[in-house]
Amino acid sequence: MAWLRMIMTACVLAAPAWAQDAPEAAEPPMTYERLGRILFALDGNTQPVGRGFQLSISGVPMLVVTDPAADRMRAMVPLRPSEGLTAEELMRMMQANFDTALDARYAVAKGQLWAVFIHPLSPLKKDQLISSLGQTVNIARTYGTLYTGGALQFGGGDSPGIQRQLIEELLEKGEEI
Predict the structure, then answer these.
(1) At 101, which CATH number?
(2) Percent of the chain with pLDDT over 90
(3) What does the alpha-carbon distance between residue 153 and residue 82 come to, in Å, rounded to a whole number?
(4) Is the pLDDT of residue 153 over 60?
(5) Is the pTM of this model over 0.85?
(6) Has residue 40 been placed in a domain?
(7) Helix and strand numbers, DSSP H then E, in the chain
(8) For residues 33 and 118, what is the distance between their CA atoms, to the nearest angstrom?
């Protein structure tokens, strides 16, 4: 049981800053339309595609799809074909999914390796969406090296500040929404 207590303590200490903030005024539920307004604020060239959107964040192409009937959304960045992934690479991605990828995840589907963020649609908060999109771009960028979402990271190097910069820029763009 000591290991469980240690993991729970680490998870509380590593919670994103927005999760520790005092509650603010209630936001309206996230809808396809509200999601679209936020994405257009982040990238003026966002294109609606079916029940989703294509956009680019910091030069990284992304697809965001919704399923309002199931109350789900998914943001995805294709990384590479999954064929040829080694056991060591898969292990490293699973480790990152546990500690450094944060709200984003590495996933395999339809023969492709993806950086993804998956969440229920209606309870999704604006800042949570924006931060998670930044984390998804960061795990795409750091695939094969740091495998990190960039919002929290232990260590004293330069990477945390560089990776956190994208999330701060996106949050700033989203402030006027």
Answers:
(1) 3.30.1460.10
(2) 60
(3) 27
(4) no
(5) no
(6) no
(7) 6, 6
(8) 18
**Rounded to whole angstroms, how far apart are CA atoms 161 and 177?**
25
| Domain span holding position 107 | 49-174
Task: Quote the tokens at residue 134.
Answer: 């930044």
Does residue 54 lie in a domain region?
yes
SS3 content of the chain, % helix, strand, coil (to 5): 40, 25, 35
Give the mean pLDDT of 128-152.
Answer: 92
Q: What is the percentage of the chain residues whose pLDDT exceeds 70?
A: 79
Q: Is 77 a member of any domain?
A: yes
Cα 2 from chain centre: 31
| 52 CB neighbour count, 10 Å cutoff | 21
- The amino acid at residue 25 is A
Contact status, residue 164 vs residue 138, Cβ threshold 8 Å: no
Number of domains in the chain: 1
Residue-wise pLDDT for 97-139, tens only, equals 888 888 999 999 999 999 999 999 999 999 999 999 999 999 9
Residue 23: per-residue pLDDT: 59
